Amino acid sequence: MKKFTSVSDVENLQEIIKKALQIKENPLSESEKGKGKTIGLVFLNSSLRTRLSSQIAAQNLGLNVLTLNAAQEAWNLEFADGAVMNGDTVEHIKDAIEVLNQYCDIIAVRCFAGMKSKEDDVNESILSQFEQHAKVPVISLESATRHPLQSLADCITIKENWQENRKPKVVLTWAPHIKPIAHAVGNSFAEWMQEMDVDLVITNPEGYDLDKNFTKNVKVIHDQDEALKDADFIYVKNWSSFDDYAAMPEVKENWMLTNEKLKNTNQAKVMHCLPVRRNVELSDEVMDGENSIIYQQAKNRIFSAQAVFSEILDELNS
Ligand code: CP
């Protein structure tokens, strides 16, 4: 694997899921693989899971880990090409990446959507600069449009929880939120589930359809109860409007996932990438109930990251 920014960087999804599950059985099985090499984890945005699970994964492989919480700890970055830097920005992203090239064998970056310019976000205005200027493999720790390490962890979690000899019905359901949230997790989940052997349905209120470039021909149902019927897995996530970019059109019905809504499902397992706003996106009873596999999903972030770092190291060591 030369880089990891979307599902298209994965040669064989079932193989990498299998590898991640083997790593879960024996996390230190490749503890020398990254010896003498350094991964830089650069966070332009907040994180709990991605930061810690990536650190654990890298350490399990013997990598040196540099973590930079750039928004708090580094110089104020300039992203615009040709900018006259006579204002608040102190270092251009191009120069920062060139310096990271001197220190790191792998650069992993988190760069959320700005949610101001649809064009900038759709075109991955920050991740694309890393891809352009990095001379080492680039890994996405969530970008404007995708969260591939999360999606791989989601695939691993579904695989672990599905033993039946039929395709599971997986429902990605929109959930309420108090502020405009990016589309990366929803887009990415839709994209990866289309590569899995599942029946995927997306449900969201009118005005909240995700970008068709990610959902393609997946069925979108605007009635949550109808969509949840017979579900085997429910993935709860908020996102703002894509068409009316970052807007939050009014929603009259209550879309928060509750135990009542689980009654019509096939005892569905409930997933969420976290962080979650309890009693807004889903109820306490769901979060703490026996259907929730959300903490298992969070644990699998380690093995998702480790499987990817391991494949990148294979390329570097070849
Ligand atoms: N799910 C996820 O990416 O969590 P963090 O934002 O805490 O990293």
Automatic annotation (TrEMBL):
Residues of the Aspartate/ornithine carbamoyltransferase Asp/Orn-binding domain: 185-310
Entry superkingdom: Bacteria
Record carries keyword Amino-acid biosynthesis: yes
Reaction equation(s) it catalyzes: N(2)-succinyl-L-ornithine + carbamoyl phosphate = N(2)-succinyl-L-citrulline + phosphate + H(+)
Key word Amino-acid biosynthesis present: yes
Domain Aspartate/ornithine carbamoyltransferase carbamoyl-P binding: 3-160
InterPro entries, A to Z: ArgF'-like (IPR043696), Asp/Orn_carbamoyltranf_P-bd (IPR006132), Asp/Orn_carbamoylTrfase (IPR006130), Asp/Orn_carbamoylTrfase_sf (IPR036901), Asp_carbamoyltransf_Asp/Orn-bd (IPR006131)
Binding site for N(2)-succinyl-L-ornithine: E142, H177, K237, R277
Biological role stated in the UniProt entry: Catalyzes the transfer of the carbamoyl group from carbamoyl phosphate to the delta-amino group of N(2)-succinyl-L-ornithine to produce N(2)-succinyl-L-citrulline. Is essential for arginine biosynthesis.
Subunit details: Homotrimer.
Record protein name field: N-succinylornithine carbamoyltransferase
